[in-house]
Description:
Blueprint: E1 3-6, E2 10-13, E3 18-22, H1 40-48, E4 56-62, E5 70-76, E6 82-87
Antiparallel strand pairs: 1-2, 3-4, 4-5, 5-6
Amino acid sequence: MMKITCPWCGVRGEEEFTHGGPSHLARPVVGDNPMGDVSDADWADYLFMRDNVKGVSLERWGHIQGCGQWFNMARDSVTHEIHAVYKMGEQPPEGWRS
């Protein structure tokens, strides 16, 4: 079992958390208008096309069975080693930026 450090609650077992997919994804925008008419292809690419990273990936995780907060994690997808945990809105630590 993975032990995950919630930025608010500390170390907990993985059963308290849910994986929320990759972090730091930018929604498609048209010009300066994020609500503009985005093509179906661009929207589909944003929703469904993800890199299948073998190695360290930046992910969103939610402490669903605890404080309910979401946070980011730099985690190795092969070994499940957690390299960094940081709050939403923060940049990943140096060395783990994509």
